[in-house]
Amino acid sequence: MNNAQIADILDAIASLLELKGEERFKVVAYQRAARAIALHPKEMVLALKEGDDLRAIPGIGKSIAEKIEELVRSGRLEYFEELKAQFPPGVTELLHIPGVGPKTALKLVQELGVTSLEELEAAVADGRVAGLPGLGAKSAENIERRLRELRAKERRIPLGAALPIAEELLAGLRQVPGVRQASAAGSLRRFRETVGDIDLMGTADDPPAAIAAFVALPQVKAALAQGPTKATVLVHSGLQVDLRLVEHQDFGSLLQHFTGSKEHNVALREWARRRGYSVSEYGIAEIASGRVHHFQREEEVYRFLGLQFIPPEIREARGEIELAARGALPRLVEADDIRGDLHAHTDWTDGQDSLEAMVRAARERGYAYLAITDHSVGRGITNGLSVERLREQRKLLQSVEQQVGGIRVFHGTEVDIRADGTLDYPDEVLAELDVVVASLHSALQQPAERMTERVLRALANPHVDVFGHPSARLLGERPPVELDWEAVFHQASRTGVALEINASPGRLDLKDVHVSRARELGCRFLVNTDAHAARHFAAIRYGVGVARRAWCESQHILNSRPLAEFEDFLYHRQVVSGL
Ligand code: DGT
Ligand code: CA
Ligand code: CA
Ligand code: ZN
Questions:
Q1: Ligand 3 centre from 162 Cα, in Å?
Q2: 251-325 sits in which CATH class?
Q3: What residues line ligand 1, using a CB cutoff of 6 Å?
Q4: Which of 278, 337, 437, 523 is deepest in the core (most CB within 10 A)?
């Protein structure tokens, strides 16, 4: 049983307790615990195996800790089974559907005999839901919309596929006469690694005309819904796009609301409520007088509430509001802070561009340094470099560095971590290189224990500078490897090996929660593109997005350091060797 499944059960318990009319604090305790487990970087199975005290996790008390233990050990939880037995079967299934609260779920099961998503869709379609006393047409419509969203979101789209489309649409929208503002919102603006849909917000002098022009953009395949101030369309890749337009004076509130996350908005509203304000997409109302304040700019919304501006990437209800109130938010790293890329391939192995083209492209980006890190020899399919070719490449690299000028070019390798944790080149070859990125490419199915030993061993090699794409996940294609992250982060922190935040939009494999935990343990990071062509350097922003979501400042990201300081990391790092 993994953390996501445990979190689901804790959530279901919360809903059932709510149905039973249990006290609020009990319900909230389970909801908080569910969230804590869902975000926890270490699998509970591992945590328990290693004797961790679950109560050390914020939000987990003694009684819930025991329940998690029972779930992990036996795969079931007696308390949950007993609770479920008090309700007709099917209620817990319906609770998974967003927009269906516990009371509605119970009613749907009892009155209509609906017990699954499919049955609910049918009941909405033939009007039975709208006919239910206490529900009515409005609720039925709401449920229908949430069901449609759920269907559309079953396939989440990698950010790297969605962001370029959103940018094209925004550019198109800005061309429309009378459009004054246009911005992305939602999970896309928060730089989540995948998005359910694209949310766009704007203001226009003539909203219906702007909506009509938007729907007619060449990227749009079909309009699913179109009103005077909003539209939902499908683009050719099948992605759904929501556009909303408001009065110019309300743009700040609109953008704030639809940027989310939902959890952040809930926390923000609670914060405001305690100060006598009610926050919505239409403005901020004084609860006592009813007077409404309007905000053109999103910054003003936060300022009005006495908060520092909270960057979208960290609006996830992880404590950002409390910090913003104290003026203590981190100064998040920015794409412009990045001064070099330490993971790049050329046509010597599986890259598309020549070494010289890669170096020139990096210099054109204004980088102060670049490492060429082609694959090691064991990578048969990618034409890995033999030791002879590796040395030959170094000579070429030195002459290109001189010719191009103005950029320091490090010679490196992306060396395979073999199944047993040894590396694919002998130590004396690694010693000749400036940068060694060690990565997993094969035997990815190993059980957690073996995989962890393998990685710990690789990171203990004093020549290794970087752990490349640590989870080896390919978004939507290949799951992450099974690894005891806690142990790996401890090892990286001890040996000084940098963890790579791989910015390639198909990977983004080190997640924000991993990065924050690793940073707590003292790890340092590189944001690298793993470029296989010169144009791939532009993907750096996706990796910077992950770093920002993890609250990283530029000092945590080694390749935001000036060249001299960066060389200190490469050549004068305190190396602690041995397991
Ligand atoms: P996604 O599309 O699943 O990747 O995630 P989001 O965060 O983009 O979610 P989406 O598209 O359903 O809604 C965009 C934002 O609008 C969301 O982050 C917060 C706001 N929002 C939408 N529905 C609700 C709601 O029921 N309550 C609150 N408080 N905010 C909502
Ligand atoms: Ca969205
Ligand atoms: Ca949406
Ligand atoms: Zn790789």
A1: 13
A2: alpha beta
A3: 153, 186-187, 192, 195-197, 199, 257-258, 260-262, 265-266
A4: 437
**Number of C-beta neighbours around residue 424 at 10 A:** 21
* Range list for CATH 1.10.150.110 in the chain: 3-154
pLDDT at 427: 96
What is the fold of 335-572? TIM Barrel (3.20.20)
User: What's the pLDDT score for residue 90?
Assistant: 82
Which pair of structure tokens corresponds to residue 391? Answer: 């040395």
Coil/strand/helix, residue 350: coil
pLDDT tens-digit series, residues 194-232: 999 999 999 999 999 999 999 999 999 888 889 999 999
Write the CATH number of the domain with boundaries 157-246: 3.30.460.10
Nearest to 33 by CA among 16, 58, 15, 62: 58
CB 275 within 8 A of CB 317: no
State the fold for domain 3-154. Answer: DNA polymerase; domain 1 (1.10.150)
The Cα–Cα gap between 190 and 351 comes to 31
Would you state the structure tokens that stand for residue 481, as one six-digit string? 């490897």
CA 134 to ligand 3 centroid distance, Å? 27
Say if residue 237's pLDDT is above 90.
no
Residues of the chain with CATH 3.30.460.10: 157-246
Tracing tokens 């790890």 back to the chain, one arrives at 523
Q: Are 316 and 263 in contact (CB under 8 A)?
A: yes
The residue whose CA has the least distance to atom 5 of ligand 1 is: 187
